[in-house]
Amino acid sequence: MIPAHLPFGATIGEDGVWRQVLTRVPGTEPRPALFLDRDGVIVEEVHYLHRAKDMKVVPGAADVVRNANRRGVPVIVVTNQAGIGRGKYGWKEFIEVQDAMLDELAAGGAFVNAVYACPHYGSGLEPYNADNHPARKPNPGMLLAAGELMPIDFGGSWIVGDRAGDIEAARRAGCAGGVHVATGHGKDAGERDAAMSQRAPGFDVVAAAAIEDAGGLIPLLKD
Fold first, then answer.
1. pLDDT score for 132
2. Per-residue confidence band for 202, with pLDDT thresholds at 50, 70 and 90
3. Other Cβ atoms within 10 Å of 162 Cβ, number
4. What is the C-alpha to C-alpha distance for residues 25 and 15, in angstroms, rounded to an integer?
5. How many Å from the N-terminal Cα to the C-terminal Cα in the chain?
6. Which of 14, 32, 162, 163 would disulfide-bridge 186, Cβ 3.0–4.6 Å?
7. What residues act catalytically?
8. In whole angstroms, what is the distance from residue 21 CA to residue 80 CA?
9. 99/1 Cα distance (integer angstroms)
10. Looking at residues 184-211, what average pLDDT do you find?
11. Please, what sign has the CA dihedral across residues 219, 140, 191, 198?
C-alpha cells in the first residue's frame, strides 16, 4: 500500500519505483556522481530490514558521504527492495528506515542528494512482480533515471556495492567504475569474483573491505 503522504521530494511512479530528490544538484553542467547501494554498504545488512530500531549505519559511511558533499559530488542511493515486492513490509516501513538512516548521516554532517528504490521481484506479489524489471539491479534503470533529473556525467561516476549486481548496473549505465565491499552480501561465496569479473575497458572494479575505504580508491573523492 502506498502511503497517502510521501516524504519531501518523493514520488512512486506508475512503474512502482521510488524516486526522491532530497537536495538539488546546483547548475546544469553534468558532473560525476557517487552511487551507493544501501543495505550492506551504507547500513548494516539485516534480512529484510524494515524496522528503524534495527538500522545501523556502517562505520565510515558518513565520512565518505560527507567527503563527496564537500567536493560537490552528488550522492545517490540506488537500492533493490524486494521485501516490498514479496510483501515482507511496505513503503511505510521503508520510509521509517530511510528517515533513521538520513538522520544518522546528518548527525555525521552528511547528506544524500537522491534515493531510488525498486520493489520489483520476479516472484513477488502484484503489482511488484515484474520479471527482470529495468530498474532492478543489475539492470541500470535506477541510475539512468537519476540522470533524467540531475546533471550527471556517467563517464566519471562510480558506485559502491556489496553485490556483483550493483557493479554490473554501474557498468551498464556507462559509469567509470565500482568498488566492491566485503560487508553485507559482499562476503558471500563467489560474490567478490563475480564483481571483479565486471571489469572491462573503460570500467574499473576495485575491492575494498568496507565503504570507509572508498575515499582512497575512487578518483573523484581523492585530492
1. 95
2. very high
3. 29
4. 24
5. 45
6. 162
7. 37, 39
8. 17
9. 18
10. 98
11. negative
Q: What is the pLDDT of residue 86?
A: 97
Residue type, 149: L
Separation between Cα atoms, residue 93 and residue 77, nearest integer Å: 17
Amino acid code (one letter) for 5: H
E strand map for the chain: 10-12, 18-21, 34-36, 75-80, 114-118, 158-161, 177-181, 204-208
Which residue matches cell numbers 556483483?
164
How far, in Å, CA of 90 to CA of 84, rounded?
5
The answer to whether the beta carbons of residues 135 and 15 sit under 8 Å apart is yes
Residue 186 backbone dihedrals phi, psi, to 5 degrees: -65, -20
Residue 197: other Cβ atoms inside 10 A: 12
Give exposure, 73-108, as e/b (b: 16+ Cβ within 10 Å).
bbbbbbbbbbbbbbeebebebbbbbbebbbebbeee
Cβ–Cβ under 8 Å, residues 130 and 119: no
Q: Helix, strand, or coil here: 122?
A: coil
All 3 cell numbers of residue 177? 567504475
Amino acid making up residue 194: A
Q: Say what percent of the chain tops pLDDT 70.
A: 100
Q: What is the rounded (10 degree) CA torsion for 32, 34, 35, 40? A: 160
Residue carrying C-alpha cell 565503504: 211
Spatial distance between the Cα atoms of 153 and 109, rounded to a whole number of angstroms: 25
Tell me what pLDDT residue 215 has. 87
Domains and CATH numbers, the chain: 10-160 (3.40.50.1000)
